[in-house]
Amino acid sequence: MHVFKKPARWLAAAACGLLAAAVLPVGHAGAAAAGAGGGAPDGGSPRIPGRYLHQQLDWQPCTGGSLECASMSVPRDWYHPDSGPSLTIAVSRHRAADPARRRGVLMMAAGGPGASGLPRPARLASYSPKLADAYDIVGFDQRGVGASTKVVCADQDAVDAMFGGVADLRDRSAAAVRRTFDRARDFVRDCERNSGGLLPYITTDQAVHDMDLYRALLGEEKISYYGPSYATFLGAYYATEFPRRVERAVLDSNIDFTGDWQSFLTGQPMSFQRRFEQDFLPWLAKNDATYHRGRTPGEAQASYERLRAALHDRPLDVEGTVITPNHLDAAATNALYNADQFADLASLLGFLEHPEQAPAETRKAVAGRLKHLMSADFVADYFAVTCGDTPWNRDSRYWVRESAQATRTHPLAGARELTYAAVCANWPRSKAPRIKVTGEGLPPVLMLNSKNDPATYYEAAVRAHRGLAGSRLVTVEGGDHGQFQNRNACVDAHVEGYLLDGTLPSDDTTCPAARG
């Protein structure tokens, strides 16, 4: 039996605290800014008042880092810019280390939706000094997120009850289903009541207009772009609505931005289950001498289900955090994003089976890490975007049937499908325009995706690639989520070669998995 001598890496990090997630004179930006209103989906150009086009960004050192930070004002509604109060978008910049070699601006965004993009230029600049030499690397918190104007929904207790509560999300009884829909309706009601009328404007389409104003205020005719996960959706929409403003674009770990959120998100239970069964369980069995979870993948899976059943029958109170089967499944899905986290999940399984053998610091770390499975701030923006960007089926009977099938066939993430879908099925009907991504008018786009990515699954990336004319897809063996900045020399060479020199593979190609 594995006895804890010290906290696993993520447990130790939890004990220390974890992350969730104004400029120089505009100069020649006037000409560039004049195009900031172009690209309306109907072919028209929203009229942009001068107070937005002519604002100056006042760069100041960011708190506790190497970046410069500023803020800009944007219309709440880009199609009716004089209606409603302005929003604030927080932006950041890492200036090119070598001004003589500077080739432009590399804009980047964060995933989620709901994660903060403000600190990310610092990490990219540290990881790739070549890009940091050649580009001003800029980021931002998307509308609805972080230091920008935030959308507010339910409080943290309500979010904890939705995703973690003592009721097992695999429970398909009539009472459990009714409780799920009741909580979803309450959540949506709280969003409408607390958001101050902001919900209809927290969409990807509105955000890409913010991005183009940012480009204009930086004085750039064109930008290059890097975005992972949800930021592939954001980047594809930006490139579609403003194709003449894109020089080069890298889309890493792709959502199917040619389709809708419903079809994409209902595909995730399959890919999380695949990653669990094809990658994690074989790894766990291979390391049975350390973790004692079973010598074969089948034995390892059986041990997981036994532990889950035990938590179902008797939830575990660890330092005031009540750990249920939902907490176990959430910890497992989170760990599947990167193989570096497999050992942490394996350690957690041992802890949950014998918590009395763990030192006090580990118990406190586990309690802190699992206390809130989803932050209230994150889910507010997540649902605003995913429910508002594209239409959802609003038939509750359909979702009861669909989620029951997902729970049977892909239980690891399928059990939570009804919770997510019930929110979007009750969301206010959106007027966001449908954006058809085709790649028309764009330079070739470099796309990256691993085969067993649990969150942005390969099949969706292939669909997006086929729909984005002229794109090149680099397929990475393995299953990590996020290929660039993942210590993969093959991927890094493709990305840096493209962004620095415009070098692309002549056709789709492959890279081996990253080595730890």
UniProtKB/TrEMBL annotation:
Signal peptide residue numbers: 1-31
Annotated family: Belongs to the peptidase S33 family.
The protein, known as: Alpha/beta hydrolase
Membrane spanning residue stretches: none
GO molecular function: hydrolase activity
Alphabetical list of Pfam families matching this protein: Abhydrolase_1, Abhydrolase_4
Chain ranges of the Peptidase S33 tripeptidyl aminopeptidase-like C-terminal domain: 413-511
Domain of life of the organism encoding this protein: Bacteria
AB hydrolase-1 domain location: 105-305
